[in-house]
Automatic annotation (TrEMBL):
Keyword NADP: yes
Entry protein name: 2,4-dienoyl-CoA reductase
UniProt keywords, alphabetically: NADP, Oxidoreductase
Matches recorded under Gene3D superfamilies: NAD(P)-binding Rossmann-like Domain
Amino acid sequence: MTTFRDGLLAGKVAFVAGGTSGINLGIAKRFAQLGASVAVCGRDPEKAQRAAEAIGGRALGLSADVRDFGAIRGALETAVDRFGKLDIVVAGAAGNFLAPALGMSANAFKTVVDIDLLGTFNTLRACHDLLKLPGASLIAITAGQADQAMALQIHACAAKAGVNQVVRTLAIEWGPDVRVNGISPGPIAGTEGMDRLAPMAGMREASESRIPMKRWGEIEEIAEAAVFLCSPAAAYITGTILDVDGGSSVGDAGRMDMAKGIG
Ligand code: COA
Ligand code: NAP
C-alpha cells in the first residue's frame, strides 16, 4: 500500500499494547515502515520478541498484562527509556470467545471486561505523563459490538461500549494537547478474532454477504486508518470512533441480495 509518504512518522515513538499479533501488529509494522520507533507489548514475552523481529529495525518487544496497571506502566517506561519519549499509544489488547450469557461464569465475563475495558483505561491512564506534548495521539481499538448487541458476545459488547466512552471522556479531559480516538474494525481476515467469531465453514461467506462492501477487511486497511489518525491530516479529530468496516455498522446489506430476486 502506498497511501502515505515515506517518513511521515519519522522521529515519532509509538507504543502498541496488544501489538504482538494480528491487527495491532499490522499497525505497529506500518508505523515502523513510515519511520516511527515502535514498541509492542503482549503477555507472552517470546511472542513479543518474535513480533519485534518481524517489525525489524529498532523495534522493542515487551511483556505485560494490561489488567495490571503497574506492569503496563513498567512497559511504557521501558519504551521511553529506550526511545527517549512517547508520541503515539495504541490500546489494542483484547480477549474474546463465543459463549451465551448462561454459559459464562462471572469470572468469564469479568476476564474480557478486564482485558478490553480496564486494560484500555490502564494503558491510556498510565501513558499520560510520559507523552510528548502537545501533539500526542492515542488510539483505542474497539469493535462493532460496542453499538450493535450481538448474541454470544455479552462480555465484548459491554467491554467495547465502555471503551468507546473511555475514548470520548479522555478526549474531553485531555484536549487540546492529546488527541484520543477509536478505530472500530469490521471483520478482518486472517485474525485470531475472526478465527474465534466465525469458526465454522460457510460463516465467512454468510458474514460477507451482509456487509455493504461484500468482503472482510484486511489488516493493512486498519493500519492505514491508524496512521491517518496519528498524522497531521487528523489534527482536528478527537473523541471520534472511526468505523473501518466496509459499511457493516451502517446496516445489514443482506436484503439487497434478496431484492435482486424481487427486482
Ligand atoms: N466459554 C466460556 N467461558 C470461557 C471460555 C469459553 N469459550 N473461555 C474461557 N472462559 C472462562 C474460563 O472458564 C474462566 O472462567 P472460570 O474461572 O469461571 O472457569 C475465565 O473465562 C477466564 O479464563 P482464563 O483461561 O483463566 O483467562 P485468561 O486470562 O488466561 O485468558 C481469554 C483470557 C479467555 C480471553 C483467552 O482466550 C485469551 O487469552 N485470549 C487472547 C486472544 C484473543 O482472544 N484474541 C481475540 C481478540 S478479539
Ligand atoms: P489478536 O491477534 O489475538 O491480538 C490480541 C493481542 O493482545 C495480542 O498481542 C495478545 O498477546 C494481546 N493480549 C491479549 N490479552 C492481553 C492482556 N491481558 N495483556 C496484554 N496483552 C494482551 O487479536 P486481533 O483479532 O488481531 O484483534 C486485535 C484488536 O482488534 C482487538 O482489540 C479486537 O477486539 C479488535 N477487533 C478485531 C476484529 C477482528 O476482525 N479480528 C474486529 C473488530 C475489532 P498475548 O496473547 O501474548 O497477550
